[in-house]
UniProtKB/TrEMBL annotation:
Organism: Undibacterium oligocarboniphilum
Origin: domain of life: Bacteria
Membrane topology according to the record: Multi-pass membrane protein
Lineage: Bacteria, Pseudomonadati, Pseudomonadota, Betaproteobacteria, Burkholderiales
Name listed for the protein in its UniProt record: O-antigen ligase family protein
Pfam families: Wzy_C (PF04932)
């Protein structure tokens, strides 16, 4: 019986041997620009994906593409998640109230299938170019937030999500800034040239993320990236342990102080007129106090704190059928039945992919999803120890993307909503395309 080498230490980047003609490299050229579309209306992203599919067909080379995909270590986990959802869909009953939502609901669980055509691409210079274009687009996005703050942003539908809070699209913009800031931080350790320019760009994007993007999830994701970088460069010594102890004590004291402060007049940021630094402080205070309310069994008094209510009721749904789940598209009718009269009764998602998967697919669905994300982390670990420097440099990019998905899924519909899901499917090939896991050893 064969087994993967430990933590994919033999991961290899497969180069492109199909020639350098314009037609053959067209998919890579389109893919390099796709991350830029994420910062603009979702229709532009969809058009970019369609253009990529056309380019992939025009380029040909299907035999090489299929062989490349077959050797990719993410293929089986992705297919397993789809198989689990399709099996549950096949055997579940479909009450009349979910008939219209069943097929869209089933489609949401196939989001990772959109990644597979992207993984047909070979590793190449296009990946580095795509990263640079993505980071450049993040700087442009930060500038658009700044222009909007000074009321200089043109009244144009192209920039509407920077001027108005548009739910998931606005949250995505913040998450994209967090990912870009994390990648900039990573590059700051990699490259020595233009160091001060890199520092200024990082500070600029982080400032826009924290003070202007109006999303706590993105700020938390960036904090996790900083922690990830600290762990990667951690050296055991009494100084480092003292630093960690002081930092932990400071955070604990700050949270305790914030929990005892008077509650802000409103936690709905869109209704608060205040400078960005005060808005950031209000969101921090509201978050800490809502967590305190939830831990002490008290109902939050503001609409922004209804997530605790959603989580509590959804947890009860999961306990009813923990292994089989309630079926595809079943969360909405089941939740509304149990949340009648509550402010959260109109919600269409639990704002947590783990809870959604557990409710509709049961534990098999949750485990299949976690297998994909754990596999991504294992691939990143193997890339980190690869002899090729270019492969090693992409390891942290993949690790950060995976952490963003793991953390984002706790508070948002990362895969339930195509706005989030397809954005991550576009970013994942930047470190993942062209990777294969060689088999060795017998047991």
């Amino acid at each position: 019986m064969t087994q993967d080498s430990a933590f994919y230490s033999s991961l290899t980047a497969l180069p492109d041997h199909s020639g350098s003609s314009w037609r053959r490299t067209l998919p890579q050229q389109v893919m390099a620009w796709l991350p830029v579309t994420l910062f603009f209306p979702v229709g532009i992203m969809y058009a970019g994906i369609l253009l990529f599919y056309i380019a992939l067909i025009v380029a040909g080379g299907w035999r090489e593409n299929w062989l490349r995909l077959q050797q990719h270590p993410l293929l089986r986990p992705v297919l397993l998640l789809s198989a689990v959802s399709l099996t549950i869909a096949l055997f579940q009953s479909r009450p009349a109230e979910i008939e219209n939502e069943f097929w869209p609901g089933l489609g949401h669980y196939q989001t990772y299938l959109f990644l597979l055509p992207f993984l047909m691409l070979p590793a190449g210079a296009w990946q580095r170019r795509a990263v640079r274009l993505f980071l450049g687009a993040a700087v442009v996005a930060a500038t658009l937030f700044v222009l909007n703050f000074f009321h200089l942003l043109p009244d144009n539908r192209l920039f509407h999500s920077y001027a108005m809070y548009l739910g998931n699209k606005s949250i995505l913009l913040g998450i994209l800034l967090a990912i870009a800031a994390g990648w900039m931080l990573h590059e700051l350790f990699l490259y020595k040239e233009h160091r001060w320019l890199r520092i200024l760009m990082l500070m600029y994007v982080v400032a826009a993320l924290i003070f202007l993007s109006k999303t706590r999830t993105a700020s938390l994701i960036f904090a996790c990236f900083v922690l990830l970088m600290i762990c990667r460069n951690f050296r055991w010594s009494w100084r480092s342990m003292l630093f960690i102890g002081v930092l932990a004590a400071g955070l604990a004291a700050g949270c305790k102080l914030a929990a005892g402060l008077p509650r802000p007049a409103s936690c709905v940021i869109n209704q608060v007129q205040a400078p960005p630094w005060e808005l950031a402080q209000i969101r921090m205070l509201c978050t800490i106090q809502q967590v305190k309310d939830f831990s002490e069994g008290r109902k939050s008094t503001d609409d922004d704190g209804m997530r605790a209510e959603i989580y509590r009721i959804t947890a009860g749904l999961i306990m009813e059928k923990p292994w089989s789940g309630h079926g595809i598209a079943s969360w909405v009718p089941n939740y509304r039945q149990r949340a009648q009269g509550l402010s959260s009764a109109s919600m269409t998602t639990p704002h947590n992919d783990y809870l959604l998967y557990a409710t509709e697919l049961g534990m098999p669905g949750v485990l299949a999803l976690l297998w994909i994300w754990i596999r991504q982390l294992l691939i990143a670990h193997g890339m980190r120890h690869h002899p090729d420097l270019q492969v090693r440099e992409k390891a942290m990019l993949l690790a950060m993307l995976t952490v963003a998905m793991l953390v984002g899924a706790m508070f948002n519909a990362i895969l339930r909503d195509a706005v989030f899901g397809l954005a991550f499917m576009i970013l994942l090939p930047l470190p993942l395309a062209g990777i294969q896991a060689e088999k060795n050893g017998r047991c």
